């Protein structure tokens, strides 16, 4: 599998860069914006163009692979050995408002196991990548999580689900608890980038509720391969579904689990 996984990683990196070019070329331009599940759940024609490019590129090179993509453009066949999990534009609300925090996220599973991940920030030209058992990298440079062991010295990140206006399970209680405990919290609207920033040591930890598989498929593996830890809110890991996600430098993980269990 090793040679095949390396070839798939190279394909994922190329497709992420090509989709990122679409995002860069259309950034702060005129594009169509629509809503999906809620008024704050947006999709643009740039999302769809990026998804089409990635899906077409996979089908041209690997027609037997399964594809799960946020906008529904793939075919998630159940018997395929390889499964691509794609967020063609993570941070669509940011993108629609001209806020420069968005990316392409591509994770690939082999027989149900997260095997490689790529996240590309087109504005900073930062390509985060990981291959299971081979570590994580940023533009080819090895990544390592931070060494911060104290929650009161930690910089954390989080986000809020699209049903935050209507659901009581809204993460605001957790946000308040961490705000009173951690050194700082950032909320910038891209879970995939937040996870990569944990891997890079820029954040010490991340938590969020009600994400989807395409939000975490690449980023969680990148964290783990950079020496971090991922789990659900009870500490069971690694994260897969995104419904409850904690990612940390590992040193802070138990403290974050304890906080979220209160």
Description:
The chain has 262 residues and is of the alpha+beta class. It has two domains: 141 residues, Fructose-1,6-Bisphosphatase, Chain A, domain 1 (2-Layer Sandwich), CATH 3.30.540.10; 111 residues, 3-Layer(aba) Sandwich (D-Maltodextrin-Binding Protein, domain 2), CATH 3.40.190. It contains eight helices and 14 strands. A hairpin with a 2-residue loop joins strand 5 and strand 6. Helix 1 packs antiparallel against helix 2 and helix 5 runs parallel beside helix 7. The mean pLDDT is 93.
Indicate the topology.
Elements: H1 2-26, E1 33-35, E2 42-44, H2 45-61, E3 66-69, E4 82-90, H3 92-97, E5 103-110, E6 113-121, E7 126-131, E8 136-138, E9 141-142, E10 155-157, H4 172-179, E11 184-186, H5 191-199, E12 205-209, H6 213-216, H7 219-225, E13 229-231, E14 244-248, H8 253-261
Structural class: alpha+beta
Rg: 17 Å
CATH class annotation of the largest domain: Alpha Beta
**Low-pLDDT ranges:** none
CATH architecture of the largest domain: 2-Layer Sandwich
- Name the helix and strand elements from N-terminus to C-terminus, one letter apiece: HEEHEEHEEEEEEHEHEHHEEH
The CATH homology group name of the largest domain: Fructose-1,6-Bisphosphatase, subunit A, domain 1
Can you describe this structure in just a few lines?
The chain has 262 residues and is an alpha+beta fold. The chain is built from eight helices and 14 strands. It has two domains: 2-142, Fructose-1,6-Bisphosphatase, subunit A, domain 1 (Fructose-1,6-Bisphosphatase, Chain A, domain 1, 2-Layer Sandwich), CATH 3.30.540; 151-261, D-Maltodextrin-Binding Protein, domain 2 (3-Layer(aba) Sandwich).
